[in-house]
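Sequence, structure tokens passed on for absentees:
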Amino acid sequence: MSNEAGIATTAAETAPAAEPSPHGLGASLPHADARAKTEGTFPYAADLWAEGLLWAAVLRSPHAHARIVSIDTTHAREMPGVRAVITHEDVPGTPRHGRGTPDRPVFASEVVRHHGEPIAAVAADHPDTARMAAAAVIVEYEVLDPVTDPEHAFEAEPLHPDGNLIRHIPLHHGDPEATGEVVVEGLYRIGRQDPAPIGAEAGLAVPRPDGGVELYLASTDPHSDRNTAAACYGLPPDRVKIVVTGVPGATADREDQGFQLPLGLLALRTGCPVKLTATREESFLGHAHRHPTLLRYRHHADAEGRLVKVEAQILLDAGAYADTSAEALAAAVSFACGPYVVPNAFIEGWAVRTNNPPSGHVRGEGAMQVCAAYEAQMDKLAKKLGLDPAEARLRNALATGDVLPIGQTVTCPAPVAELLQTVRDFPLPALPKDTPEEEWLLPGGPEGAGEPGAVRRGVGYGLGMVHMLGAEGADEVSTATVKVHDGVATVLCAAVETGQGFTTLARQIVQETLGIEEVHVAPVDTDQPPAGAGCRGRHTWVSGGAVERAAKMVRTQLLQPLAHKFGMSTELLQITDGKITSYDGVLSTTVTEALEGKELWATAQCRPHPTEPLNASGQGDAYVGLAFCAIRAVVDVDVELGSVRVVELAVAQDVGRVLNPVQLAARIEAGVTQGLGIALTENLRTPRGLIRHPDLTGYALPTALDAPDIRIVKLVEERDVVAPFGAKSVSAVPVVTAPAAIASAVRAATGRPVNRLPIRPQAAVVTDR
């Protein structure tokens, strides 16, 4: 033992000095909080504490649709340790909230519209007391028949004062009389998926001496949440402050305000700090899910396989409230034809209210559902024409300069054909017969019940596209401040770090622009100017652009005195590796020396070019930018049992510019794995509007054992000139594309149509073997 220790010490002492860590854009800079998160010391909302803390619990409806006859809180109020019980009667006025469309009450008052809708909230001195008191609230319901089929929502009685139809988009592009020599049709259904964050929702509300309240939350859009909370509390926005805590996993805006709003009301009522930590069941009941979707398609093509016309009907089930359904429908209709050239398109889309759980923003909303359908159509077209599936896609691939069915010209890089050719030509994995028996798995896992003779291999393709930033006239703007003092830079920006890597990117931007190694990103709260929601790559583009502009302004402040002293402009000076040099070598100094005794700062905004809403015919320049992905899936299917094993997913993606290689690869791999779950396992079942098994036992997420080999075979770095760094969002498009590719591969293996996601075992069974 002592000798081993001595050897280890000697080796450490004689080891050469470590190279300085690379920094700046293009380097794989690690997350600043990576160590704290891996060691379990990073503070999340569930870890927070305050003196005199009370605990909150929310009573939720056990019914999908019911009329509330009466609410009796007497027994709950009389329980020892209970400090407050609140219902709709305790909410000032009749405020409404919701991520996109504010149409839901804080607490149901007359009607319950979905399973899990909040009815009352309790604050008590112990979490168990709070939960028992919430259960002691007596609610008399008149149970009503729920409307759970979105097709029935058109004729059903209005479920909401705003009616059942949230949005209708009829897209007309080209000649309605156009026809093709070959026609294929299909009906497709996409199930309901849950974001399933690794940490359930939690928060802390602390009353302020001025009669306001501070909320400590894992919010992804703090300023929007602050404004909504203030309206629901009957307070001016400046008396409500949101402090963003660590976000324990977010695949979109998954933090529903239904968890946040009761906290502040209880804190204001009791005058004490109040904390709420949701159970996994409450998390499933409370936040929004992916839109279940029904899609009908008809593709027309000529004899060579080139598309002539696409007709489609798309119906999104929004659940009880609108949330972001109007935006999701716009994406679904706009991208209903996929990354293909389609001269004539007639798409009709609807988003409707039902008594199902609310649907909302989940990564790739709208685009994922239509991708599964149009790629199934491309497989059908290839089969009918006797074409290779990849070739059928290549003949129709979209490129820069082509026109989308919404009438918008694709001005950003669109290397769709290059992406597809890359994954098509990538070497296929070895067949089981070429591999030692112990090195390959049967579908169903290591102990799968299948027989090798029943296993068939399939290869399939998926091409996907998503939009970046907001759309249809959304004002995307972010503000950032960069301060430099004592050789240390600090970034202040209300862009929330949800795991997408913004804090790392902000450090890299400042390091590259100013040559300063030590850069800190300040915690986020609503005292800072707004930066918007953390989704669709907007913080890389808009917030990162604001940080870059502010850093460049500080750079000018730093270089101007030196340039003036040597009689030259700042453009003739450069900062590299912490040194300032002139073009002619006359000036050479370090950034540290130039900063000595100085405190510099600057604030800047970034706002992308404007977009416009889709018009009455579904036409308009609605999107700032687009991102594309191609995936080739290889699967093994046991055609007797219907079990599927994904062997490999080869990915080629249009990324614009790689800003952090390791981080980018991790985001793509995570997106692909999420797509695997959508394709095979994730289905939140809601018979008669009731969520069945709202837990991670009943809702099957893919595990490490389910994850296939993910091969990132190419990253196309063709910069988008309108983006601050030329980079594109990378997380959503593999989520959109992977399910379609896996379904395509299962079709190739079985010859079955596979028209539903997730893929049921019976859909992969071959009976006529």
Notes: The longest helix spans residues 538-565. Residues 1-21 have pLDDT under 50 and may be disordered. The two ends are 64 Å apart (CA to CA).
